[in-house]
Amino acid sequence: MNRTILLIEDKSSLSETLKTLLELHQFKVILAGNGEDGIKLARQKLPDLVISDVYMPVVNGYELLESFKNDSTLSNIPVIMLTAKTEIEEINLAMRKGAAGYVTKPFLFKNLHATIKKVLV
């Protein structure tokens, strides 16, 4: 596939594991540890997709979605939220703010991969 994914996750063990799994599926992966760094990297690299945690330091996932929506350079890049928050209010909020998908932790990689494929069609 050779598409580029920006993975924004503050837990390095999870981001490294996900990076390895995504690379096995032919994705190029860029890592960021918080939303602020993620926004900067998105502007520099213009990835095909962003996967972001919701609750992380500096800029959270909801603020990241707002930034993407309000930035003409980033507004067409889909963002999948990957979070432990399973409440329907959280899911609805993310979708209202422009998330292209929402995957809850813990998750099966095949479910995340299916969401990625659906978003990147």
Question: How would you characterize the overall build of this protein?
Answer:
The chain contains five helices and five strands, in the order βαβαβαβαβα. It has helices at 12-24, 35-45, 61-69, 88-96, 109-119; strands at residues 4-8, 28-32, 49-52, 79-83, 101-104. A five-stranded parallel β-sheet has the order 2-1-3-4-5, with helices on both faces. Strand 1, helix 1 (12-24) and strand 2 (28-32) form a beta-alpha-beta unit. The longest helix is centred in the first third of the chain and has 13 residues, at 12-24. The protein is globular. The protein starts with a strand and ends with a helix. The model has no long low-confidence stretch (mean pLDDT 94).
How far apart the termini lie comes to 11 Å
Strand portion, in percent? 15-25%
What ranges have pLDDT less than 50 throughout 5 or more consecutive residues? none
Count every beta strand, where a strand is a DSSP E run of 2 or more residues. Answer: 5
Question: What is the CATH class name?
Answer: Alpha Beta
The H/E string reads EHEHEHEHEH
- The CATH superfamily is Response regulator
